[in-house]
Amino acid sequence: MDKVCVVGLGYVGLPTASLLANKGFQVQGVDVNPRIVDTINRGEIHIHEPDLDVLVTSAVNSGNLTASLSPTSADVFILAVPTPFQDGYVPDISYIEAATHAIAPYLESGNLVILESTSPVGTTEAISDWLRELRPDIEADAIYIAHCPERVLPGQILKELIVNDRIVGGINPASTAKAAAFYQQFVTGEIVPTQARTAELSKLTENAFRDVNIAFANELSLICQGLQIDVWELRELANRHPRVNILQPGPGVGGHCIAVDPWFIVHSAPEQALLIRTAREVNDSKPDQIVNQVKAATAEFQHPVIACLGLAYKANIDDLRESPAVEIVRELVRESVGHLLAVEPHIPSLPASLDSWGNIQLVELDMALQKADIIVLLVDHQVFKDIDREQLQGKTVIDTRGIWR
Ligand code: SAJ
After folding, report:
1. Cβ-Cβ contacts under 8 Å for 369 (sequence gap 6 or more)
2. What is the CATH number of domain 301-405?
3. What's the pLDDT band for 48 if we cut at 50, 70, 90?
4. How many helical (H) and strand (E) elements, i.e. helices and strands, does the chain have?
5. Atom 20 of ligand 1: nearest residue by CA position
6. What is the CATH number of domain 3-203?
7. Does the CB atom of residue 342 touch ligand 1 within 6 A?
8. 91-108: per-residue pLDDT in tens?
9. Can you give the residue ranges of every domain in the chain?
10. pTM for this one?
């Protein structure tokens, strides 16, 4: 079986590396963070994802997965590093460039390099250009390079790694074929071949599609607020039409993907991507709208106690990255709006961005419900859905997810 080197041991790289190791591949996981490397080598994990701990422990115990700070030689190199944006929403592919430099000395003729990171159009070709410069001793066609974008949903990563269809786009047909054959060994979904650039744009399109659709729901929620119509009822009614399927309005769009990737399209095609840009702006405006709603609600009280339920970017996970809930709470804390309590059952302590202000406490749900005058529901975690409605009696409730209708 192939030897695989996975660069980047985050939400995509670590599940992929441990899945492959459990399938019998020899896997070298690489990360620049020594703490992450040590954690994994102990058979433990640094991120929260259902069942990932068991998979990593068994991968490490089998001897098939080891983590290190730098790569070694392998048959297949998978790059799964972050692609954030810089100021002005300019895509930052420096982690991909650094990962390419890191693997370059270990490459040999016949190796396959797969880019899994969500990337702006042209990045896979850029890897090919960088490698040509870094390894002029290897014939250009002797290294196979393909983009196979990750498409897993946090919370269901281990299942989706196997069952999702995969798009595989090589820099040439031979690269596409070689990468497709690799995924065929552990993916039960269909492997769909294309070119690298199309694969790149297809991943960005999936997330932009979702962003635009959420923006439609969020815009409706703003329209409804002005017209004093319940957006949740409106949505249910409109969705009875056989060809209408409006997504859920909420406090904004979080996570490291949907709030980021559409900007890569806007950057590549600023003149054309008007709807995609507007959707981003609508979704990014939602946290401010909620802050204003909370501020308006405090007018009724002299010393309002405000309980903010949920900090994660979406339901039933502990991931706070780009979370609109955190953004809303941070603004309330910054503006000293009332006495603030936060409830987030999935984390042990407040993130530094909130804790450093000193005027907010992370508390248990029961305590928050008891003490609060105003309850702001920010994340539709199951524990909040299960709250006995009696406990909300007499409180001012701002339900940004529509779970208590
Ligand atoms: N959200 C709403 N209303 C909705 C649905 C979602 O406000 O109706 C919000 C969520 O609360 C959250 C954000 O949108 O803040 C994003 O959540 P999500 O569940 O839609 O998506 P992610 O970011 O967890 O994962 C997405 C997925 N992409 C798509 O569904 C098209 C996943 O398949 C990708 O692999 C992932 O991005 C990624 O890594 O790109």
Report:
1. 307, 375, 387, 391, 392
2. 3.40.50.720
3. confident
4. 15, 15
5. 210
6. 3.40.50.720
7. no
8. 999 999 999 999 999 999
9. 3-203, 301-405
10. 0.94
**How far apart are alpha carbons 79 and 265 in whole angstroms?**
21
For residue 307, the cross-strand partners are 341, 375
Residue nearest to atom 10 of ligand 1 (CA): 314
pLDDT for res 405:
85
Check if 148 is active-site.
no
* Known catalytic membership, residue 385: no
Answer yes or no: same fold for 3-203 and 301-405: yes
Task: Show Cβ contacts of residue 228 under 8 Å, excluding neighbours closer than 6 positions.
Answer: none
Residues sharing a CB contact under 8 Å with residue 85, sequence separation 6 or more, in sequence order: 91, 92, 260, 263, 264, 267
pLDDT at 45 exceeding the cut of 90: yes
pLDDT single digits (tens) 269-318: 999 999 999 999 999 999 999 999 999 999 999 999 999 999 999 999 88
Residue 400 dihedral angles phi and psi, to the nearest 5°: -75, -10
Alpha helices in 185-299 (DSSP H): 196-227, 231-238, 261-268, 274-298
Q: Can you tell me the distance from the alpha carbon of 322 to that of 312, in angstroms, rounded to the nearest whole number? A: 9
- Cβ-proximal residues to 357 (8 Å cutoff; 6+ apart), any chain: 333, 334
Question: String of b and e for 227-263 (b: at least 16 CB within 10 Å)?
Answer: eeeebbebbeeeeeeeeeebbbbbbbbbbbbbbbbbb
Alpha-helical segments (H) within 23-93: 34-41, 52-61
Cβ(340)–Cβ(333) under 8 Å? yes
